[in-house]
Amino acid sequence: MIYSMTAFARQQAQTDWGDSTWELRSVNHRYLDVSIRLPEDLRSLENAVRERLRNRLDRGKVECLLRYRPVNRQDAALRIDMALAEQVVAAAERIAGLLPGEGRIDPLRILQWPGVVEAVVPDVDAAAAPILDALDRAIAELVAMRAGEGEKLAALIMARCREMSTIVAGVRERLPSILAAQRTGIVDRLSELQAELDPARLEQELVLFAQKIDVAEELDRLDTHLAEVTRLFGEDAAPGKTPPGKRPMGRRLDFLMQELHREANTLSAKSVDKEVTSASVELRVLIEQMREQVQNIE
């Protein structure tokens, strides 16, 4: 199965401590590059999050964001650091003694002092299970979207492979007529020059010329590379990871695109026929279109 590297997923989870929302975005990249953004109170989950992503994905730049909104619990007691509050009050009274007149210390101002009211930190151990379950659902959604996008990319690439195979077959069929036309052309030019023809020398020159313009090897290699691309797209894969134990195909396909492009260039360089030259141009256009799509395959 072919997987794209472009996808988006969003999943939510509710816990006693608050609501959490996972957002996953992935785009194409040479390797797996994971960026994780978590609330400070849940920073301890980062290793578990990173491990889950690495177990399901092989390539791509992945942005993983957790939005966390704590719930105002009516039964939660307000926790006050009394020792710190007493220190703040004592310091305020000393300062007040230096000022003329008498002033009463506002209790609310004391509560606003940093650290006097202890923030209610969520129980990470209790909240971790539902939050990570939501992450697993988000990753599954991301993988499913990558698979759906990969099927569309595979269909586009296979359509272009079929077009290329048709072009290669047409060039192969034309080779004998090209050689015959070149032979006729040489004989006609020599006749115009009224030169004495040595049949043995003529055949020797034609053989040398045929070797120079011979593109049979290039056509064979084009067929071989196209068959390998077709084989890769035809491989069955179990659902799951990309899937577990399966090697990413993007790099192999990218290498095949380079080889196809090189053979098409050689075909163009050896061409002495306008139809073959036109066919090589069409091949390079199709290869470039496939290469753009392959850049997004995992």
Automatic annotation (TrEMBL):
Keywords linked to the UniProt accession:
Endonuclease, Hydrolase, Nuclease
Q: Entry's NCBIfam families?
A: YicC/YloC family endoribonuclease
Q: Which PANTHER family match?
A: UPF0701 PROTEIN YICC (PTHR30636:SF3)
Q: Name one GO molecular function term.
A: hydrolase activity
What protein family does this chain belong to? Belongs to the YicC/YloC family.
Q: Which Pfam families match?
A: YicC-like_C, YicC-like_N
Domain Endoribonuclease YicC-like N-terminal: where?
Answer: 2-154
Needed cofactors, names only, are: a divalent metal cation
Instruction: Report the protein name in the record.
Output: TIGR00255 family protein
